[in-house]
Amino acid sequence: MDGKNRKDIYPGLEVDIILKKDQRNGALTRGIVSNLLTSAPYHSRGIKVRLEDGQVGRVAAIVDEE
What we know:
The chain is mainly β. The protein is built from no helices and four strands. This is YwbE family protein.
């Protein structure tokens, strides 16, 4: 599942994000969502979140909880 819809993302969810510095090379960073920074219900490049470790980026993928 991608991270473009705000309704799919919530605190405590494990996600892969793209940090601003990694936008060119596409490197992903995995972490747990602390809070959502995008207020719009949809964003074409991904909802912006802050991870529990303080890093900020746009959600590229939601990690399956299986």
